[in-house]
From TrEMBL:
It holds the Pfam family Acetyltransf_10. One of its GO terms (molecular function) is acyltransferase activity, transferring groups other than amino-acyl groups. InterPro entries: Acyl_CoA_acyltransferase (IPR016181), Bact_Acetyltransf (IPR050832), GNAT_dom (IPR000182). SUPFAM superfamilies: Acyl-CoA N-acyltransferases (Nat) (SSF55729). The keyword Metal-binding does not apply. Keywords: Acyltransferase, Transferase. This is GNAT family N-acetyltransferase. The keyword Transferase applies. It comes from the Bacteria.
């Protein structure tokens, strides 16, 4: 695990890695239609890549309003705290940008993961891309 680092990514320069990860996780594994996966928010988002040496293994994005999303880790690297590292990087970046509240839409099976990071469920369960989700919020303490 100590070889895994999270860095800020550039949507244009790192596009192939971001797309490879999200296509593997959301489109191939979870059957999310491509037209729902790719949106105009990617252009304005701050992107993160989790790297093992020079190989990208996970990604996430932070929108200007504090919405964290598209958190995805390739199957072979799950269970190694890669998701935690991505989320911690996104939360820290949000706090550095004075975004006092972070929000996300979580797949229901992942709510305990996000709760460990300080998020709380703030909605009823709903379907998005055919997958049960809930909205979650985390309030930051001032830095």
């Amino acid at each position: 695990m100590n070889k895994i680092k999270v860095r800020l990514a550039d949507w244009h320069k790192d596009n192939a890695d971001i797309r490879r990860i999200r296509e593997a996780v959301f489109i191939a594994e979870q059957s999310v239609p491509p037209e729902l996966e790719w949106d105009s928010d990617d252009n304005q988002a701050i992107h993160f890549l989790a790297m093992e040496d020079d190989y990208a293994i996970g990604t996430a994005r932070l929108l200007p309003d504090g919405q964290i999303g598209r958190v995805s880790v390739l199957k072979d690297w799950r269970g190694l705290k890669v998701g935690d590292a991505l989320m911690q990087a996104a939360i820290l970046e949000a706090q550095n940008r004075d975004l006092r509240q972070q929000m996300l839409t979580a797949q229901v099976h992942a709510t305990a993961f996000y709760e460990r990071l300080g998020f709380r469920v703030v909605s009823e369960e709903f379907l998005e891309a055919g997958i049960p989700h809930v909205d979650m919020v985390r309030d930051s303490k001032p830095l």
